[in-house]
Amino acid sequence: MHLELRHLRSLRAIHEQGGLARAAEVLNLTQSALSHQIKALEEQAGIELFLRRTKPLRLSAAGMRLLRTAEQVLPLIEAAEAEFRAVEMGRAGRLHVAMECHHCFDWLLPVLDQFRRSWPEVDLDIRSSLALKALPALERGQVDMVISSDPEEIAGITFQPLFDYAPTMVVPAAHPLVAKGYAEPADLAGETLITYPMDRPRLDVFSQFLDPAGVEPARVRQVEQTAIALMLIASGRGVAVMPDWVLRAQAGNPELALLPLGPQGMFRRLFAALRSEDLQQPYMVHVLRLARTEPVRMMRALAQG
């Protein structure tokens, strides 16, 4: 027996409408075409599906069994079709984000919280790059966006600029560097450098500051949480380099001092990497807009607070 979805839909419509004429109208078929379809199905099955001598038209025992199948299968098919239509129209999709900056949680979580309210049908997930290599995962389709400050030339991948930031050194308030007013690479040679648990090339303090000068800190201590790192620094147990937007809330902290890297300061740009084919997705356009405006909102709030 060759059973098709149209057969199940026709059977359900006839049962619900109580006759061929009304069912044909619902299905946008002629009554003759619907009658021919049902007869062909009965010939295949070798059994009657309807009791034609009754009014309204009723299903036979075999027809009722097939109806139960239709009532199980059709809602699943219709739900899948609705999902496909939503994807096609840009309302649904997937946004799995990986980060190459540990501190980005503080900025990205508010962005994604706003995003989910506008795009409830988009499957949302976030992870750090500690569990995977973020850009190769983007190429393989494991994630859909990577937050990074290190753009690369990769075929099929687009790096969208988000915002600029200044890597800033945070030291105890009584540190000798406070009188100097800024930090140079050689100043870290005798320091314990507190960093996030990330690969060295992904940390600005190494890739942009210490490594080009050939300077090594006396010790490196990895800490997961920004708040814990700041407590250690306030206790005189090390120094750290963090983005200015992370440290803005500490500007009035009497136990800490913030110093630019170099007399002119250092500036970096954060990017969102995504597959070029996804760039025009409406929900991607929206999350990029939120990602660019949230840091500005955060800094304004801190300045006013």
Automatic annotation (TrEMBL):
Please tell me one Gene Ontology term that the record gives under cellular component: cytosol
Q: What keywords are assigned to this protein?
A: Amino-acid biosynthesis, Cytoplasm, DNA-binding, Methionine biosynthesis, Transcription, Transcription regulation
Q: Which GO terms of the molecular function aspect are on file?
A: DNA binding; DNA-binding transcription factor activity
Can the keyword Cytoplasm be found in this entry's annotation? yes
GO BP term, pick one: methionine biosynthetic process
Going by the entry's taxonomy, the superkingdom of the source organism is recorded as Bacteria
Family named by the database record: Belongs to the LysR transcriptional regulatory family.
Protein name in the entry: HTH-type transcriptional regulator MetR
UniProt source species: Paracoccus kondratievae
Q: What is the lineage of its organism?
A: Bacteria, Pseudomonadati, Pseudomonadota, Alphaproteobacteria, Rhodobacterales
